[in-house]
Amino acid sequence: MTTFIELGIDQDMVDQLAHKGITEAFPIQEQTIPLALTGQDIIGQAKTGTGKTFGFGLPLLQRIGANPEPGVQALVVVPTRELAMQVFEDLELAAKGRAATVVPIYGGKAYEGQIEQLKAGAQIVVGTPGRLLDLASQRVLDLGNVREMVLDEADKMLDLGFLADIEKLFSKTPASRHTMLFSATMPGIIVSLARRFMSNPIHIRATDPDEGAAQANIEHIIYRAHSLDKDEVIGRILQAEGRGKTVIFMRTKRAAARLQEELTDRGYDAAAVHGDLGQDQRERAMASFKTGKKDVLIATEVAARGIDVDDVTHVINHTVPDDDKAYLHRVGRTGRAGRTGIAVTFVDWDDMHKWALINKALDFGIPEPVETYSSSPHLFTDLNIPEGTKGRLKATPSEGSSTPRRAQRRPQP
DNA sequence: AAAAAAG
């Protein structure tokens, strides 16, 4: 085991982490922190839930120093507002004993408070591209003195939807800056593209090369969906013994809103987060899920990346995600920090090909879908969820019934 | 094609 002290992190930050029970460095942290401290540009790749945030966050904070001059010197860019909040909170925790201040900058919020914090001299900014550029063009955010720049979920940030904004942000910072890119997924084409913004980057992969792309501690269960009632199966999963928090991913905002209504009707108090909601609603939903006030979160792709919630035991893909990367990020909301998790994916008839591509890319080795599959070693048939298998799923009296069963509220622990 | 990200 390696301690953060051994990696070169200052005692005050180590103490703050220790208060939260974080004492041992993850492999990605062991590998990136010493290099990042020297100013080496880094592309850091490690599986979901294995400590990437502190892998860049600790060296970033340390290089900014405990008593930096006022003014923005570090910029962390992320793809969603909720992830901005979360990374902000992580950095703020580590920097608690320092004069350096961290500020979250993202849309959907009043400008006033953000502008005030910047004017007050905040040194470290965590934000989403739109609002960052907005404030930069208003001359409220000066990126001319940025020494440290990070793209979290870097492959997403360099994807078509974000690339133009990211280029603008880079162009407003000094070329001499220290640059770090982190993600669980880093396609070769993105790595090549990334070099344009970096100087002699080292690509660090904290993964066993022959281990496969998926998290080993997540069990993948694949249901052929065209002959089953998804609501029925979801109802059973929500009653599964030992179920903790559950995230249900939907393809569209409308579908997410509809399922929330449906589950509410059936007695499940589910939170929902998607882009049709106001920012205050989004934040309330995330908060109630994090605290456990609600243990089901219905989400669009907005919650697929980076979001770190303790005790998420199940992820349900209501439809097949776009590609293998999207699949990995979504299911990576469970099985974090060494825990185990279960990922259930419904494959509609129209999505069979999409699933086959994901199956191939991730090397799951699940045969061509004929019935219903689990990644291993269990082979399931439609709706025939084996009773007592690993105690994961509870058989229900309505099995085989054609009328949708009214789900019962799960007994509170 | 949808979602995300400024308003």
Please describe the structure with a list of short key phrases separated by commas or semicolons.
413 residues, alpha/beta, Rossmann fold, 2 domains, seven-stranded parallel β-sheet, seven-stranded mixed β-sheet, 14 helices, globular, DNA-binding
Description:
The chain has 413 residues and is α/β, with parallel strands linked by helices. The protein folds into two domains: 195 residues, Rossmann fold (3-Layer(aba) Sandwich); 182 residues, P-loop containing nucleotide triphosphate hydrolases (Rossmann fold, 3-Layer(aba) Sandwich), CATH 3.40.50. It has 14 helices and 14 strands. A seven-stranded parallel β-sheet has the order 3-4-2-5-6-1-7, sandwiched between helices. A seven-stranded mixed β-sheet has the order 10-11-9-12-13-8-14. Helix 6 runs parallel beside helix 8. The longest helix has 14 residues. The C terminus is likely disordered. It binds one DNA strand of 7 nucleotides through helix 6 and helix 8.
